[in-house]
Design goal:
Length: 324
């Protein structure tokens, strides 16, 4: 532990740059605690606060630029990748979409303070074709605000942070083990919770081939596209006849779901997580004939099954009953 602290003190600028950059590109590294520690080092007179702030902002902009470019040129693939590295893939894009739609490009200023939004927001800015100049302006302001906030906290409370560091040195390996076990436990809990949800619906899924056969046979099934607006901007195609109803809307409109037809739900989440969660919700409300589409829209596309262009949102949302 003492060696780690010595390394931090002598290479604080490099450590800040690499840690913040890694966090911004989506790696699970503790950026905020490191900024607090760096601020404390500056408070002890062993580093320059202005230099640390500039380094942190530069790392933020570099990492965010990667996702901005991916969102600009590889919109759907970028969102899919971000969801796959998230601990809560069914909620990550939807939560960021709502925030981005509500605040526009100004969301970039506050996104770094909200867990899960920091990496997604630059990708959404690229997806929505925010100009490079406006992206740098607002994202730069957010990066500066975020970096300076935690560096200043560390600077002001340098004595208290130094005391915590002394305790860490005193307890040494034991403290490191406790932290590592806690983080590992959280990740394992999220993983097994997700797997439990998916196991509950595994036997009830419908395969793309089975759904294609239902469509070919003219079966009166209700197909619901649960993807949000951002997903449709990135990928404006859907399964023929599918209704566009987001997960949030479906929770409020479940009374409109017919009980005498098969209900097929699909999304673009890894392991069709949103569709599985919504299917469980409908089952709890007495709708038994509901199944998620195995593999979602991505597998349907991979099999070269027919797709139709989404013309307008009002074709699917709010203008008619689901059963009509």
């Amino acid at each position: 532990m003492q060696q780690a602290l010595d390394f931090l003190l002598h290479h604080i600028e490099l450590v800040v740059f690499l840690t913040v950059l890694a966090e911004q590109v989506g790696l699970p590294v503790p950026g905020i605690p490191l900024l607090l520690a760096a601020g404390a080092v500056a408070g002890e007179g062993q580093a320059n606060l202005a230099v640390l702030t500039c380094i942190s902002v530069a790392a933020c902009l570099l990492g965010d630029m990667v996702w901005y470019e991916l969102g600009l040129h590889r919109g759907r693939q970028a969102l899919s990748l971000l969801c796959r590295i998230s601990l809560e893939p069914d909620a990550c894009v939807r939560r960021t979409e709502n925030f981005f739609v509500a605040h526009g490009v100004r969301a970039l200023v506050l996104a770094k303070f909200i867990p899960g939004l920091s990496t997604l927001a630059p990708a959404l800015a690229g997806l929505f074709k925010v100009s490079l100049g406006r992206f740098f302006l607002f994202n730069g302001a957010g990066s500066l605000l975020w970096s300076l906030s935690f560096l200043l906290l560390g600077y002001v409370f340098s004595d208290q942070i130094g005391y915590v560091a002394d305790l860490a040195v005193r307890f040494g390996t034991t403290a490191g083990i406790i932290i590592a076990v806690s983080l590992a436990g959280y990740v394992v809990f999220k993983y097994f919770n997700r797997q439990k949800l998916l196991r509950e619906l595994r036997v009830a899924r419908i395969t793309p081939a089975e759904l294609k056969q239902l469509l070919d046979d003219g079966q009166q099934s209700v197909i619901v596209d649960l993807r949000g607006n951002v997903d449709h901007v990135a990928d404006p195609y859907t399964i023929p006849g599918a209704l566009r109803i987001s997960a949030e809307e479906l929770e409020h409109r479940h009374h409109d779901i017919p009980r005498d037809r098969d209900i097929i739900l699909f999304c673009a989440c890894p392991n069709e997580a949103t569709a599985a969660r919504m299917a469980l919700m409908l089952k709890r409300r007495g709708i038994s004939r509901v199944r998620p589409l195995l593999g979602g829209i991505d597998v349907w596309r991979e099999l070269a099954y027919p797709l139709e262009l989404v013309i307008a949102k009002e074709n699917a949302v709010g203008t008619s009953k689901i059963s009509s």
